[in-house]
Write a structure and sequence with these properties.
CATH architecture of the largest domain: 2-Layer Sandwich
Oligomer: single chain
Radius of gyration: 20 Å
Number of domains: 2
Number of strands: 10
Bound molecules: (3R)-3-hydroxy-3-methyl-5-(phosphonooxy)pentanoic acid
Order of helices and strands: EEHEHHHEEEHHHHEEHEE
CATH class of the largest domain: Alpha Beta
């Protein structure tokens, strides 16, 4: 039988992609209503969804929760340029791309805003109720975003060069978020001022996106405060110090910490040297920049 005689819907599959992110400032503090700034980066996750009569158990709890929230059954095929569990927002990118692909494949008709809200709900449900909207929002809209509580805003995209260092040690976002919650409960007199100081650094950074040297200093402060909060990791510290020694303007971990990735702010001329210094520490370097596009349809397969 020639497919040419059949309506296209018979064999097309919806493929959507969504970008990863780095947390420029404010991770962990953002969970407590303080400001957080994140930027979408070039590596992406691609998700293809197809209908199925019965829901096959997906490997990812995020994908299973996406199907549950959308009330349909299907299967997915994921291709990722992002390392998972590393602070680059791969779970959020998978969640966002999956929801948009389901919406398309099943012709559900939800708006982008509705899907972004569902993406945040999926993350909260999988992460024991504690997840800011940062990762899912930046992956949906791209560019640079500021999140404060329930307020989400796009900021003008900065022209900055980043080198990401993947420490190749995995982390658990929910585990790290729980660790900070625990410190806040047992030692509020220590944890609360650190969280306030992170918020002050984030607010200050907003005046310095055209001043890479000052932005770098603020990144270094944010990194030190995250270490004081107990979410550091020896290999992340090593990469941060190596990047600074190789000429980075600033360097910090990104995301929940306890492993995963760091990134360095670099001048154009320093980025190859910084990437080399990171790779010399048994880590993987990715030279990248901002992705101003958020979730997008790739093609019908
Ligand atoms: O490690 P990631 O990429 O999942 O980022 C977590 C960021 C936190 O602020 C620690 C949690 C959150 O939900 O914002």
């Amino acid at each position: 039988m020639s497919l040419g005689t059949q309506p296209l819907r018979w064999y097309r599959l919806a493929t959507w992609s969504a970008p990863g992110k780095v947390f420029l400032f404010g991770e962990h503090a953002v969970v407590y209503g303080k400001p957080g700034i994140a930027m979408a980066i070039k590596p992406r996750v691609m998700v293809t969804v197809r209908k199925a009569k019965r829901q096959k158990k997906p490997n990812s709890t995020y994908i299973a929760e996406c199907f549950r929230q959308m009330g349909v059954s299907g299967s997915v095929y994921v291709r990722s340029q992002l390392p998972s569990s590393s602070g680059l927002g791969s779970s959020a990118a998978v969640t966002v791309a999956t929801l948009f692909a389901i919406n398309d494949e099943f012709e559900i008709g939800k708006s982008a805003d509705e899907l972004a809200l569902i993406a945040h709900t999926v993350e909260k449900n999988v992460q024991n109720g504690r997840a800011s909207a940062t990762d899912t929002y930046v992956s949906t809209v791209g560019g640079m975003v500021l999140i404060t509580g329930n307020t989400k805003r796009r900021l003008p995209p900065p022209q900055i060069q980043l080198v990401i260092g993947n420490s190749l040690t995995h982390h658990s976002t929910s585990g790290m978020v729980a660790r900070v919650a625990d410190l806040k409960k047992t030692r509020p007199q220590i944890a609360d001022p650190i969280i306030e100081a992170i918020a002050a650094v984030t607010k200050c950074s907003m005046h310095h996106f055209n001043n890479p040297r000052e932005l770098g200093n603020l990144m270094n402060m944010n990194h030190a405060l995250l270490e004081a909060l107990g979410v550091g990791h020896p290999q992340l510290s090593r990469l941060v110090l190596a990047a600074r020694a190789a000429g980075a303007l600033g360097a910090k971990m990104t995301g929940a910490g306890g492993g995963g990735c760091m990134f360095a702010l670099c001048s154009k001329s320093a980025k190859t040297r910084v990437a080399g210094a990171i790779e010399a520490c048994e880590a993987r370097a990715i030279i990248t920049g901002i992705d101003t596009q958020g979730v997008r349809k790739e093609k019908d397969e």
